[in-house]
Amino acid sequence: MRVxxxxxxxxxxxxxxxxxxxLVARRGARVLALDSDPLPGLSLSxxxxxxxxxxxxxxxxERDENGRWGWxxxxxxxxxxQRYATGAPDGVRLVQLGKPPREGFGxxxxxxxxxxEIVHNIADARALRDWTFIGDLPAGPRQAAYDYAPYAHTYxxxxxxxxxxxxxARRVARIVRMHRRDAExxxxxxxxxxxxxxxxxxxxxxxxxxxxxxxxxxxxxxERLGVAPIDYAPDSxxxxxxxxxxxxxxxx
Length: 252
What we know:
By secondary structure, the protein is α/β, with parallel strands linked by helices. The chain is built from 10 helices and 10 strands. The strands form 2 sheets. An 8-stranded mixed beta sheet has the order 5-6-2-7-1-8-9-10, sandwiched between helices. The protein has a two-stranded antiparallel sheet with strand order 3-4. Helix 1 crosses helix 10 and helix 3 crosses helix 4.
């Protein structure tokens, strides 16, 4: 399974991506979670705690005499994953672009460069051939346009029952279909409170949804506490629905 989760900010991308990664790992797959969102989210949803102050992937890159970033000697995309991915529950491995500190993006330029090289080389890497990749992209269409998930066979576009969320979803889907003609795009209605919400989402995006996930107090409480929903509310309706989503994606 090679999946990238995209959509509007606050739509629930990180919860879905992190929970999917844990559930797929529990089925016996080796899972690499790829976090290119500069805002916190995926590591908490995975249950691996807050991000490190300095992204481990920064150790994989260095500047040459001309100031250009590249790999450190002896390091390449696969070795960077092997050395600098961090652990998460259920055996998931996590690679992060990094979260910018107060100074801005300058301190994470190296890790950003390394991350971009990784995602553009792992799909065909023999050492990772049998791995599942699940990516969490930041809000909006920018990273989809700049090809931050070329490994993805399927883009999971998360939509809430609201016009702004649907507008972002349509834009992201259009960009993906323009640049990645070989990739599948599926829509997920999230935080659904009644049957009419699913129909509303489908009307707003003009396409059917693959699955719907209910609004869930257990998931909301987990997000407030900064813990993984799958640990805090493992039997909640949303986690059960994500389990069904994983099964649906595995058949594609």
